[in-house]
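anyone seen this seq b4? input:
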Amino acid sequence: MAQHGDISKVVLAYSGGLDTSIILKWLQETYGCEVVTFTADLGQGEELEPARRKAQMLGIKEIYIDDLREEFISDFVFPMFRANAVYEGVYLLGTSIARPLIAKRLIEIAHETGADAISHGATGKGNDQVRFELASYALDPAIKVIAPWREWDFKSRTDLIDFAEKYQIPVPKDKRGEAPFSVDANMLHSSSEGKVLEDPWDEAPDYVYQRTIDPEAAPDTPTYIELEFVNGDPIALNGKKMSPATLFAALNDLGRDNGIGRIDLVENRFVGMKSRGIYETPGGTILLAAHRAIESITMDREAMHLKDQLMPRYAELIYYGFWFAPEREMLQALIDKSQEHVEGTVRLKLYKGNTIVVGRKSPKSLYSGELVTFEDDEGAYDQTDAQGFIRLNALRLRTLAMRNRAE
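predicted toks r here
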């Protein structure tokens, strides 16, 4: 915990919502420090100018509102999707991958403004506090971190509301009661957790879903798309080249309209507890299917299998908050090397919550029609060679069987 007398200026990750507005005033009152606010546009779909106005109302002089959408997709999301990263077989890491970028910018702003510390609104029960702080210390080992939820004496929502009213912080009517669930959103996904979702046996109410229509209400006619890749990254949709964020936004729209990307999961948090959440990743779900499809015809078998073996570890590192750790960077170098020839086009059918690969082609394809055909292959593959191949691979199995029979 930072000492109060040590802090003269702090950079706060500020959403403009009630909780971070309370944190802003609490920092001023508790630490007697100057506060710099930083609001990141990661494609969460909310108007950010109200955050600027609210910060100004609270007396903030240095206000940063940064559009980080292109950097988020090109430097964080795409590298992760080169690995086909999925945590615990289901989660596409939408919240996890946003945290290192926010932390990176917090540290940069702290350096630009001469701040002593940074602050975030993550609670003491979740993963985000770990992600923010591990990333921050990796980038600046001397930085001080203030985590109000671990420090202050507020015990209830009522305490927070009372503090807000004392300091004339506007409290919207819908914030006076307990929220039915909490939401985090960015261009990659939206996640909903808590309250009405805490019982893993109860089906999530329809109103929880933020980014997708109900698959049952999706069009009865499938949507066909083509996604083009170079070096493992998508560069064009339906023949039109786009910037990373523009392309990803278009995939999100396609996924939303076809009810794609909903998951209901119970995950293991890094801090030790299990939590249930509803996650929606429409564009990411499409991208994952397409990327695996283009890899299937362009990657060597053993390289592909090795990469798949490493993926759970890579996904775990991102989930735990080790984006800037050397082991993640080492794995990234291997993953990026594997993508040198991953290029070509994938055709997909989107239909009522399903992403179906229906075609793939590549100038770097390793798929050979001559080898797989049942017709006369004119010497391209001598089937009699398989007999020796099988006998050599069976040698140890036969040896084991003979020993076991003799016992």
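The first strand starts at residue 9 and ends at 13. Residues 174 and 180 are 10 Å apart (CA to CA). kinda curious what u guys think
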